[in-house]
Design goal:
With 397 residues, this protein is mainly α. Helices cover 67% and strands 0% of the residues. Helix 2 (12-32) packs antiparallel against helix 6 (118-143), helix 5 crosses helix 6 and helix 10 packs parallel to helix 12. Residues 1-5 have low confidence and may be disordered. The chain has helices at 2-9, 12-32, 69-77, 94-98, 102-110, 118-143, 152-155, 159-165, 170-185, 189-202, 208-220, 226-258, 262-270, 276-280, 282-285, 291-314, 321-333, 345-351, 353-364, 370-396. The protein is globular. It has 20 helices and no strands.
């Protein structure tokens, strides 16, 4: 009986259930604290959303409460529309917003193209993604010889509180990313290509994975076993090149549709010389002059811990080369952020999604050193809880 219970608990699907419950708890807490319910998580507000043309099922908040979820709502109503307004919502930067269409395309399908169902479908999709990320995360933990419960690290990223609370795409993108990695580990190339391609259409920064795969493919050719090296290189190259080609094609389509290339639009606003954006914003961090500023400092310290733990585990980790490269590329992306993302934890924590994801993979692949594992677990749980409390306070206000 004891062994049966132990076997029942040793299942990745249970990690997925915990992830879904965690996502549901975030939704329940934030929506119950708002008089507008689940619809408030869209954060639709002027000037992007016109209350006079928005459907009744979409609560329109005051201008200071507006956020990016309203653009995902618009795409969920009509994923490929280039109309000036859809369901009352106008893009501020059309090609930049529409490049992350994957999440909304899934919501459009789940809502049966009914705009009145979209607010609930946005929430449901993120909860489903938390389930998928936990389940796949548990399976990935097993590939490193760990108990599936280590997969909880994937869903405990504090940035996901913002993603779920604002109807954003990071959780869905991470679920696709995790699925692609697991498929690669199980040598299911076609599945890996589909999932990695879906990831880049959901969040373009997940292109870190296919880019790392291409670099790893070239590097693997140095192996003395040429026949085996060529086979591995071909598999990694295909898994990397196809998603990059999908992303490039989508970028060109958006350039044709909106007369602006998304990546160049994003670079103008979000990317600067290394550390320039953080240096320009340092006065907002030190010294903290309010509770919000102190929380922002804690969030920044958490990212430093994540990158530090990943670096410590990097050398001893048995994680494949592409996972290590993914972590390095994700970590290198952070110093390139402009001052705009560093203005608040909501932005820079979400920007660290890939760095955190690959840091967890690297840590899972290293030998059991409690100092490293424990720091990542405790900091993730602690900052996740603090982030949820902070967002609950904002929702109540």
């Amino acid at each position: 009986m004891r062994f049966a219970a132990r076997n029942a608990l040793d299942r990745p699907v249970l990690v997925g259930v915990v992830g879904a419950l965690l996502g549901g708890a975030i939704v329940a807490m934030l929506s119950l604290l708002s008089p507008h319910g689940i619809g408030a998580l869209v954060h639709a507000a002027p000037p992007a959303t016109d209350a006079s043309t928005a459907p009744r099922s979409l609560p329109v908040l005051t201008a200071d409460r507006g956020f990016d979820g309203q653009y995902y709502y618009r795409m969920s109503v009509a994923p490929l529309s280039t109309a000036d307004r859809v369901a009352g919502v106008r893009f501020d930067l059309p090609s930049l917003r529409q490049q992350r269409v994957g999440y909304s395309a899934l919501v459009w399908i789940a809502s049966l193209a009914d705009r009145d169902r979209v607010p609930a479908a946005l929430v449901a999709m993120n909860i489903a993604a938390m389930f998928a990320l936990g389940w796949v995360g548990g399976a990935l933990a097993r590939t490193f010889g760990r108990h599936p419960s280590w997969g909880l690290l994937f869903v405990l990223f504090p940035g996901f509180v913002y993603s779920i609370g604002f109807d954003l795409s990071e959780v869905v993108a991470a679920a696709f990313l995790a699925g692609g990695v697991l498929a690669l580990q199980r040598r299911r190339l076609a599945v890996a290509v589909v999932l990695a391609s879906s990831a880049v259409l959901t969040r373009e920064t997940t292109a870190i994975l296919p880019l790392a795969l291409v670099i790893a493919a070239v590097w693997s050719l140095r192996s003395p076993d040429r026949r085996s090296a060529r086979a591995d290189a071909a598999r990694l190259a295909v898994a990397g090149i196809v998603p990059l080609a999908v992303l490039a094609a989508w970028q060109l389509w958006l350039r044709w549709s909106w007369h602006a290339l998304p990546l160049t639009t994003s670079a103008d606003k979000n990317v600067r010389f290394p550390f320039q954006g953080l240096i320009d914003s340092i006065d907002k961090f030190l010294p903290p002059d309010s509770g919000a500023a102190l929380f922002r400092d804690v969030s920044l310290a958490f990212l430093v811990v994540v990158v530090g733990v990943g670096c410590l585990a990097l050398r001893r980790s048995t994680a494949p080369a592409y996972m290590k490269l993914g972590f390095v590329l994700g970590a290198l992306l952070l110093p390139l952020l402009s001052s705009f993302p560093w203005a608040g934890a909501t932005s820079f924590m979400r920007a660290a999604t890939e760095a955190y994801f690959f840091a967890v993979l690297v840590v899972l692949g290293h030998d059991y050193r409690v100092s490293v594992d424990g720091v990542l677990v405790c900091s993730s749980v602690g900052v996740f809880a603090l982030t949820l409390v902070s967002e609950a306070g904002k929702a109540r206000a």
